[in-house]
Amino acid sequence: MQKIFKREVMKKFKIRPMISLGTAFLFFISLFSGLVLYFTPQGRVAYWIDWRFLALTKTDWTNIHILTSVFFFLFAVLHFYYNRNAFVQYLYKRACNIKSIPYETFFVTVLTIFILISALYQLPPLKYIITFSDILKKSWVKSPLDEPPIPHAESMSLQAFCVKQGIELEKAISFLREKGIEVSSPRDTLKDISSKNGLTPAKLYALIKPLEKKEVSELKGLTVEELEAKLAGRGIGRKTLKVLAEELGFNFEEARENLRKQGINFKEEETLKEIAERYQKRPIEILAEALSQKE
Fold first, then answer.
1. Quick check: bond before 125 cis, omega within 30?
2. Which among 128, 181, 247, 286 has most CB atoms closer than 10 A?
3. CA 235/CA 59 separation, integer angstroms
4. Nearest 5°: CA angle at 171, between 167 and 173?
5. Which pLDDT tens digits describe the chain residue by residue (295 residues)?
6. Where are the domains of the chain?
7. Helices 201-208 and 169-178, interaxial angle, to 10°?
8. Rounded distance, CA 107 to CA 91, Å?
9. Count of beta carbons in the 10 Å neighbourhood of residue 23
10. pTM here?
11. What is the separation, in whole angstroms, between the first and last Cα of the chain?
C-alpha cells in the first residue's frame, strides 16, 4: 500500500512546474530582500542601534538575500536546462528571420553596458540611485550617539571599551548598576549586556558617556602622525567636526575659526572626510589644523 502511495505521489509531482514556481518564488524573495538592504543602515550603525525591519536584523536580511540569490541562480540554470530546446529553437528562428540587429537587442546591450560602467565609475544619472541609497542609510543616524565611537564597538568587552574611551571601569559598572543595569562580568560584550537588559548598545553607551575623560589637553600640539596614532580606530573621517568637539572636548567655534584662517570652509553637517576630499587632504590633517592653535 505504501509503495502504491509513493508511486502515485511521484506521478503527480512534476519537475518542470516545480522549477518554474521555485524560480518565481526565489526571484521575488531575493528582490524584496535586496530592496530592504538598499535602505538598511551601515553595518556599524545597524548593529550599534540594533536595527530591525519586520523583526529581522540586518544580518538576517543579508543571509536571506544571499541564500535566495544562490538558489534562484540554481533554479534558473535548471529552468534553462529543461527548456533549452524551446529556447534554442526560438533563437534559431529569430536568427533566420533577422537581416540586421533588432533595435531592441541594440538598446538592451547598450543599456546593460551603460549600467555596468555607471556602477564602476559612478556616472550620472545612475550614480544618484547609489547616492540616494547612501542618504537612506545615513537617515537612520538621528544623533551622534547612533554611531559607534569605534567600529564594531558592540563586540568589545565592557572592560576593553572603557579603556579605549578613557572611562574608569569600576565607575562605569557602579554607575550602570545604580541605573538598574545588570553587569555580570566586565568581560561581557556591550551587545550581551545591552540585550540582557533590554537596551541597545547605543543606549548603554549613552549612559556611561558622561564618565569619559576629555582628551583635548592631550591632543593639543600633537603632530599629524601622533594625532593619527592617538585616535586610531575612532572613525573620525565619518564624523563632523562638531561631533568630534563634543567627544574630545575642544571648542567647536574656535576650531572652525582655525580652519577658516587657513582657507578651509565647511558646513556643520559635513563630515571630516567630505571636507578633506574637497581640499585634497586627509581627515586627520583637517583635525590637526583645527586644533593647531591653543585655546
1. yes
2. 286
3. 22
4. 100
5. 555 555 555 566 678 888 889 999 999 999 999 999 999 998 889 999 999 999 999 999 999 999 999 999 999 999 888 888 877 777 777 667 666 667 777 888 899 999 999 999 988 899 999 999 989 998 898 887 888 888 889 999 999 999 888 899 999 999 999 999 999 999 999 999 999 999 999 999 999 988 887 655 467 667 788 888 777 777 788 888 888 887 777 888 888 888 888 889 888 888 888 999 988 999 888 888 888 754 4
6. 2-99, 148-211, 216-290
7. 110
8. 18
9. 20
10. 0.73
11. 92
Answer whether 247's CB lies under 8 Å from 231's CB: no
Pair 241, 290: CB distance under 8 Å? yes
∠ CA 193-194-197, rounded to 5°: 90
Which stretch of DSSP H or E encloses residue 52? strand 52-53
φ, ψ at 220 (rounded to 5°): -60, 130
DSSP string, 194-210: HHHTT--HHHHHHHHGG
Tell which residue, 145, 180, 193, has the closest CA to residue 165. Answer: 145
Do 202 and 209 contact (CB within 8 A), yes or no?
Answer: no
Taken in order 165, 169, 171, 176, the sign of the CA dihedral is positive
Q: Which amino acid is at 240?
A: T
Q: How many CB atoms lie within 10 A of CB 149?
A: 20
